[in-house]
């Protein structure tokens, strides 16, 4: 049903942008900020496009319809209105009223389908936290490099790594604006030269030679955290998955008959299913935890909130209580395992790397190397678990009884 002026005036802003259609491709695009754009949807040379006519109420309904009719005459002749000047509406004035928040949310909405829901939520959260407070209502054409730099330097004080990520988001927003003819330049360009140099460090991890002492400390520290946390650390040691992959693991991912753990693609960094062969020792840990978790969805549920997974910080806190603060992290088990597999057990980097679910670095390798080395990895994971088990036996006869108890399940 065609629009009337009352409907246009009464269209209220919402959390997400929405459209109210008139006729012949004309519609009112209502942005979260409350700004209302007249846009024309059309098809030319086999491509679907949209063209911004003006802002309501500066451009009335009758004016928008008149411009629409003129544009459609040109479209029928094969003339694409996008490169042309707005008919009687100054492009500069139109864009000047487009806020950074509008452009950012439009970019976010266009790319939402290409991201996981979690990633999309993270991006918007960071924009709302770090950028919108200063720039959300700023007209996109008024944002200068120095304005962007001031925002980024505020982040730099407490989160230097986050500065680079947020700058990338903003750059992509402005690049989208350039591509859609809503801005003419990217004010984030060249700002790296004015930001502090940041070198990302590796996750803390003990050396291979320190592993026996770590295992002894783990056993002696059991009283400092829950049995579930103790089992989680042991399973992480034997599977060397990422912390998030461990704490969000569900029982439906475990196949006890095939002795495999299959992490679905949506939970993996590389967005591919990842098969983890489970050693005898890992199966024993899972069997014990299955009795403890009382039929919960997650293998390691949160103790205060059983319907949710255990917090990622639980592993890190336990390592701190063991005295390994800044010396070992959950991610550090991956580096440690890679060292053991290559230095102590003699496995090739390719086989060990596949178990870590790393993608080949070369684009050529990624295109042609589909080897998963599953048969080799099955044997490798059992030998690795056996190696860890042997390290649990102390050199002194005096401690053998205590460590024998620790060995059970490993």
Describe this structure in words.
With about 400 residues, this protein is α+β, with helices and mostly antiparallel strands. It has three domains: about 5-90, Double Stranded RNA Binding Domain; about 100-195, Orthogonal Bundle (DNA polymerase, domain 1); about 210-405, hpI Integrase, Chain A. Helix content is about 45%, strand content about 10%. It contains 18 helices and seven strands. The protein has helices at about 5-10, 60-75, 90-95, 100-110, 115-130, 130-135, 145-160, 160-180, 210-220, 225-240, 245, 280-290, 315-320, 330-345, 350-355, 365-370, 375-390, 400-405, and strands spanning about 20, 25-30, 35-45, 45-55, 255, 260-265, 275. A four-stranded antiparallel beta sheet has the order 1-2-3-4, covered by helices on one side. It has a three-stranded antiparallel beta sheet with strand order 5-6-7. Strand 5 and strand 6 form a beta hairpin. The chain is elongated, with a radius of gyration of 29 Å. It starts with a helix and ends with a helix. The model is unreliable at about 85-95, about 365-370 and about 395-405 (pLDDT under 50).
Task: Give unreliable regions as ranges.
Answer: 85-96, 364-370, 394-407
Order of helices and strands: HEEEEHHHHHHHHHHEEEHHHHHHH
Shape: elongated
CATH homologous superfamily caption of the largest domain? Intergrase catalytic core
Gross CATH architecture of the largest domain: Orthogonal Bundle
Give me the Rg, rounded: 29 Å
**Order of adjacent strands in the largest pleated sheet:** 1-2-3-4
CATH class of the largest domain: Mainly Alpha
Based on DSSP secondary structure assignment, what is the total number of beta strands?
Answer: 7
> Structural class of the helices, strands and pairings?
alpha+beta
Distance between the termini: 69 Å
Number of helices: 18
Number of separate structural domains: 3
Largest sheet: 4 strands, antiparallel
């Amino acid at each position: 049903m065609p629009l009337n002026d009352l409907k246009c005036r009464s269209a209220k802003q919402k959390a997400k942008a929405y459209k109210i259609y008139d006729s012949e491709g004309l519609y009112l695009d209502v942005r979260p900020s409350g700004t209302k754009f007249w846009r024309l949807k059309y098809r030319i040379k086999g491509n679907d496009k949209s063209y911004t006519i003006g802002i309501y109420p500066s451009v009335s309904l009758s004016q928008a319809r008149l411009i629409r009719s003129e544009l459609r005459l040109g479209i029928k002749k094969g003339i694409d209105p996008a490169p042309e000047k707005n008919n009687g509406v100054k492009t500069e004035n139109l864009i000047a009223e487009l806020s950074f928040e509008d452009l950012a949310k439009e970019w976010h909405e266009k790319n939402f389908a290409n991201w996981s829901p979690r990633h999309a939520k993270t991006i918007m959260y960071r924009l709302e936290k770090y950028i919108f407070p200063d720039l959300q209502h700023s007209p996109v054409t008024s944002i200068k490099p120095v304005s962007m730099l001031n925002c980024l330097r505020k982040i730099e004080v407490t989160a230097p790594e986050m500065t680079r990520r947020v700058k990338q988001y903003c750059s992509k927003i402005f690049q989208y604006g350039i591509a859609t003819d809503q801005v003419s330049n990217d004010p984030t360009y060249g700002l790296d030269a004015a930001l502090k140099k940041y070198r990302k460090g590796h996750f803390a991890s003990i050396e291979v030679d320190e592993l026996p002492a770590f295992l002894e400390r783990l056993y002696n520290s059991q009283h400092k955290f829950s049995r579930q946390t103790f089992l989680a650390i042991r399973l992480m040691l034997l599977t060397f998955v990422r912390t998030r992959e461990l704490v969000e693991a569900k029982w439906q991912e475990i196949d006890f008959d095939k002795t495999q753990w299959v992490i679905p693609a949506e939970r993996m960094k590389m967005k591919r299913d990842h098969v983890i062969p489970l050693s005898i020792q890992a199966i024993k840990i899972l069997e014990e935890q299955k009795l403890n978790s009382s039929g919960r969805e997650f293998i390691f549920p949160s103790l205060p909130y059983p319907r949710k997974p255990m917090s990622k910080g639980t592993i890190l806190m336990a390592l701190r209580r063991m005295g390994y603060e800044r010396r070992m992290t959950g991610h550090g088990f991956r580096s440690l395992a890679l060292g053991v597999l290559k230095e102590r057990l003699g496995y090739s980097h390719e086989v060990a790397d596949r178990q870590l679910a790393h993608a080949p670095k070369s684009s050529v390798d990624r295109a042609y190397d589909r080897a998963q080395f599953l048969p080799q990895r099955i044997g490798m994971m059992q030998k690795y678990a056996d190696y860890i088990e042997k390290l649990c036996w102390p050199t002194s006869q005096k401690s053998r009884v205590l460590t024998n108890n620790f060995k059970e399940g490993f």
